């Protein structure tokens, strides 16, 4: 067993760490307050190649495996989560669909410009009445000649205000339930496409989430992604693919919080000595460090399993669940260790505390992850019973 | 045009220096390209992009130094050479090793940092120029190459000095010359496939005597801890008197 990373991934880690430390982190407070990532930061991120992580080299990206993506996400997790979310949503759910299920023509048309970040990607599944119960979507796609006519509404679509390419799930055959859903590649300038209201959020400032509307929007049939009727399965696969990366981002944020908390505990003097000398503080830090270490091991194990093409449905769900829950527990302890300072908005801890909360909800809630895990356990049980 | 960059791997400038048994501890240390050498690498890559050049980066060090060389390749250098000689300790010996490598190579521009942020001697590059009989311009903040003519601009005491040289020549980089780029992720992948050659001193035809140290390091110490400040109290007259006493004492 060998836990060392290939040297080029170590090099990437150093580069991203350097970049985050010097180009993003100094602007974190500004991004938070203005709820906007400066264009210059996004431009530099694009030059660095951060928008082509999932896209194969032949289409202008880097085509990193999951291990590589997790290394980069871990480093990106150490700064303002809103910035990380723009990049994570683009490389994950925003572009993986086309990479995995796209035809050669679709890949040639979309991926090169997505790899450079000229075209930002987004993923549109959730609707007002269909969140965790994703198969209940109501957006319709009716075939008319060589095109489909889409009507409906999507909500909470990350990157929607600036994305150009959307992976959209819509119902092509209402009689078939989940098997009547098809995925489409939708461009922002298709007639009938409209971006609605940008949501005000508790956290993830700098990343924008909006509603989108399709009003008799025409989508050419060559923009069907995968086969008709496979949209729901595609969506689940795309979401499953993103889970390890999301956990890696949580890991990076946890590491940042532990660093800050450890330093603060040594610097803050109360009762005539650093608060680190209080055993309760030591225990908080020990618990944080333990959970972070377990998360790190788990992230890289699932990444490795994914790269070995192993079935990771159960493990990816466990990882997403564990990563987001650990992030919330670590953020809570970090606030507690920092005391009043942990509650002050001029200091980054409370920002991470707020940003952590959504990780238990988006890309599959903690509860849904438990359902997935249990369903897999049940399958395993049925299989062993069949063997006997 | 062939540009050769002499570079060194150093401690990160934010690294805390620790002494263990009279030596600087290297475990767990973050290593970087010496910042002044990074300007040199960037300048070479800009020459490549703007005027067409091949860029070779050369470093004397140990196996760990390949990391810095790979970074330079990822920034855009074409090939890298590691002269593996971890025991070389003085600047003269390091310059000898570099000269032994360069003497039968053809090149137009040699670039290096003004000095290294660790030992800060600022000797190696200039010794190389001297041994090869090349002109050199030190601490340039602007470099222009036209044909076989080079113009370097240096900052001197609130003014600038413009110096010209005929190629081949050596230039050392000062802060302000350029803004080094981050190696992009695709280029990090590509750098893996770029040639990195490792040479030993015997490959370069050097014997131990050739590179024997002329300078012996007697002791390494950390700078003395800063003394706590002294507070002067009393009436202004009394304070002035105390201050005068302290100053006189310090000057003696």
Automatic annotation (TrEMBL), chain B:
Gene3D superfamilies: HUPs (3.40.50.620). Residues 21-208 form the Electron transfer flavoprotein alpha/beta-subunit N-terminal domain. InterPro entries: ETF_a/b_N, ETF_b, ETF_beta_N, Rossmann-like_a/b/a_fold. The keyword Electron transport applies. Keywords: Electron transport, Transport. PANTHER family: ELECTRON TRANSFER FLAVOPROTEIN BETA-SUBUNIT (PTHR21294), ELECTRON TRANSFER FLAVOPROTEIN SUBUNIT BETA (PTHR21294:SF8). Heterodimer of an alpha and a beta subunit. Belongs to the ETF beta-subunit/FixA family. This is Electron transfer flavoprotein subunit beta. It comes from Alicyclobacillus sendaiensis PA2.
């Amino acid at each position: 067993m060998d836990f060392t990373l290939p040297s080029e991934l170590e090099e990437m880690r150093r580069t991203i760490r350097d970049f985050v430390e010097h180009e993003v982190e100094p602007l974190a407070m500004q991004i938070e307050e203005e709820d906007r990532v400066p264009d210059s930061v996004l431009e530099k991120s694009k030059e660095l190649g951060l928008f082509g992580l999932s896209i194969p080299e032949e289409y202008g990206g880097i085509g990193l495996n999951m291990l590589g993506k997790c290394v980069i996400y871990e480093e990106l997790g150490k700064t303002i989560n809103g910035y990380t979310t723009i990049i994570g949503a683009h490389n994950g759910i925003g572009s993986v669909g086309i990479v995995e299920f796209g035809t050669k023509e679709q890949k040639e048309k979309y991926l090169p410009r997505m790899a450079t970040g000229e075209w930002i990607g987004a993923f549109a599944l959730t609707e007002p009445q269909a969140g965790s119960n994703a198969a209940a979507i109501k957006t319709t796609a009716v075939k008319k000649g060589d095109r489909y006519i889409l009507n409906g509404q999507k909500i909470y679509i990350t990157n929607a205000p600036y994305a150009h390419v959307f992976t959209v799930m819509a119902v092509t055959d209402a009689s078939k339930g989940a098997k009547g859903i098809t995925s489409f590649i939708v461009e922002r300038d298709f007639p009938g496409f409209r971006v609605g209201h940008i949501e005000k959020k508790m956290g993830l400032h700098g990343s924008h989430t909006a509603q989108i509307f399709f009003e008799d929007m025409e989508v050419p049939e060559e923009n069907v992604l995968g086969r008709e009727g496979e949209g729901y399965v595609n969506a689940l696969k795309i979401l499953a693919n993103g889970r390890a990366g999301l956990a890696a981002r949580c890991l990076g944020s946890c590491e940042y919080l532990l660093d800050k908390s450890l330093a603060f505990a040594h610097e803050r003097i109360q009762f005539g000595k650093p608060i680190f000398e209080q055993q309760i503080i030591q225990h908080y830090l020990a618990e944080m460090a333990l959970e972070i270490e377990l998360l790190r091991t788990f992230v890289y194990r699932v990444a490795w399993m994914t790269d070995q093409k192993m079935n990771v449905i159960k493990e990816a769900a466990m990882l997403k669940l564990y990563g987001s829950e650990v992030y919330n527990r670590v953020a809570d302890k970090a606030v507690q260790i920092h005391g009043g300072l942990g509650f002050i908005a001029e200091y980054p801890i409370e920002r991470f505390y707020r940003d952590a909360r959504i990780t238990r909800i988006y890309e599959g809630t903690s509860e849904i992850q438990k359902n997935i895990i249990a369903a897999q356990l049940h399958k395993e049980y049925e299989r062993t019973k069949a063997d006997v | 045009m062939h540009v050769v960059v002499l570079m060194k791997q150093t401690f990160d400038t934010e690294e805390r220096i620790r002494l263990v048994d009279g030596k600087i501890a290297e475990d767990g240390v973050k290593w970087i390209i010496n910042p002044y050498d990074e300007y040199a690498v960037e300048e070479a890559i800009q020459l490549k992009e703007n005027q067409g050049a091949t860029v070779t980066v050369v470093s004397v060090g140990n196996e760990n130094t390949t990391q810095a060389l790979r970074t330079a390749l990822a920034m855009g250098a074409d090939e890298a050479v590691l002269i593996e000689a971890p025991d070389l300790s003085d600047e003269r010996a390091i310059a000898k090793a570099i000269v032994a490598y360069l003497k039968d190579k053809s090149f137009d521009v040699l670039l290096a940092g003004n000095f290294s942020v660790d030992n800060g001697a600022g000797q190696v590059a200039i010794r190389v120029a001297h041994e090869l009989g090349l002109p050199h311009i030190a601490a340039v903040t602007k470099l222009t190459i036209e044909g076989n003519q080079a113009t370097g601009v240096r900052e001197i005491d609130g003014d600038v000095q413009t110096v010209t040289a005929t190629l081949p020549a050596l230039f050392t980089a000062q802060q302000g010359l350029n803004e080094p780029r981050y190696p992009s992720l695709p280029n990090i992948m590509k750098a893996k496939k770029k040639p990195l050659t490792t040479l030993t001193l015997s490959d370069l035809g050097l014997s131990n005597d050739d590179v024997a140290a002329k300078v012996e390091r007697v002791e390494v110490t950390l700078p003395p801890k800063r003394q706590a400040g002294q507070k002067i109290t009393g009436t202004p007259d009394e304070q002035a008197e105390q201050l005068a006493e302290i100053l006189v004492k310090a000057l003696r």
